[in-house]
Amino acid sequence: MAQGLPIAFVARATDQAVLLGGEDVSQAIRVPEISDGASRVSALPAVRAALLDLQRRLAAQGGCVVEGRDIGTVVLPWAPVKFF
């Protein structure tokens, strides 16, 4: 399921929208229940592998800021700028 995730990021005038299957889920994904669930699901090896590929593809497009515990060491170790 994670490999075929129809996710897109769309720049708007003042922010960026997260679309899932064409539906704007920008606000829905930021509630505590989703955040807690995301931590548990992302611990699954198959999900981590699918998300790693997705994160790398998105970052390769440029113009992004990515944050997270393993972004600078695992996901994008070649990133030109890192803040710790």
- The portion of residues assigned to helices is 25-40%
**Span of the ends, CA to CA:** 32 Å
| Average residue-wise pLDDT | 88
Cα-based radius of gyration, to the nearest Å: 13 Å
For the biggest sheet, the summary is:
3 strands, antiparallel
Specify the number of helices.
3
List keywords for this structure.
three-stranded antiparallel sheet, single chain, alpha+beta
SSE arrangement:
Elements: E1 7-11, E2 16-20, E3 23-24, H1 32-41, H2 45-60, H3 71-75
Antiparallel strand pairs: 1-2, 2-3
Question: What's the quick description here?
Answer:
This protein has 84 residues and is an alpha+beta fold.
Question: How would you describe the overall organization of this protein?
Answer:
The chain is an alpha+beta fold and 84 residues long. The chain has helices at 32-41, 45-60, 71-75; strands at residues 7-11, 16-20, 23-24. A 3-stranded antiparallel sheet has the order 1-2-3, with no helix packed on it. The mean pLDDT is 88.
